[in-house]
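Researcher: Next entry in the queue.
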Amino acid sequence: MKALRWHAAKDLRLDNIEEPKPSKGQVKIKVEWCGICGSDLHEYTAGPIFIPTENHPLSGDKAPIVMGHEFSGQVVEVGEGVTRASVGDRVVVEPIYSCGTCDACRQGKYNLCDKMGFYGLAGGGGGFSEYASIPEVMIHKIPEAISFEQGALVEPAAVALHSVRSSKLKVGDKAVVFGTGPIGLLVIEALKASGASEIYAVELSEERKQKAAEFGAIVIDPKQYDVVEELHKRTDGGVDVAFEVTGVPAVLSQAIHSTKIGGETMIVSIFEQEASIQPNIIVNKERSVTGIIGYRDVFPAVISLMEKGFFSADKLVTKKITLDEVIDQGFEALLKEKNQVKILVKA
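Model: Structure for this entry, 347 residues:
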């Protein structure tokens, strides 16, 4: 079967590999749609970051590995011992590997597992392929009301909802999102679902500013304003919570500065470089800075919100392509075409 594999930075290949068989406790799915994630782009341009160059302790794989972790599909075969899935089920994949025995796992925080990895980044298979065999524990069923295209957005929407749920945001609070790529836009949507009274978005790209406005944010252009000064003015002292979703080192300091006394900054990005901050901007206003990675125990809530109309694929997806086009029309397009937000790949 065809599968997109990461061999090295800037070296993705559409390879022909053996079609997987479900082993004990696994289900085999026919992949329908898979989204290209910002993490995939980071691996393409600057990896390996999450991709293992030595055998991963949980997947047992190392590069080259099949990519793709934002995907939906239909169960076509089940392995021995599978009880939660049947042939014909429409599913999405929660692609976190966890050991189940470390301190984090024992606390139920499986996304913080000492050996944590992502299916589609850490090996085992991936969504940029025709078929995938996946541990049953990673499967979530989706109702008929949710399309497979919509299903491919459950994973990135889970990142956004987890970031808002993990913050101190309360109904009626004010928030700002720095960076309105796909995750930033989904954070805006999660903030709406969580009852934020005012949602600001800081963005340079004209196309993404327009998208942020469509999602209901009040857009601030850093080319026109001193962002921190403008946010403090408009919110009478700063936002309650800032979400850093750019991965740009200089923006982290802006995000922290934009919060009020006792405010919070959530780091949602994966940074390729170190980010310098002056600790006194936290200390002097008793602010807090919190990081999140992935998600936990949130897929059912995302699926429920999607049934109510949140996280719409129609608003987020800007391009649909085939697996044969994934490198040039997918990864390269996201790097070169500023009007692209989320690209879905049909297996």
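Model: The mean pLDDT is 96.
Researcher: Noted, moving on.
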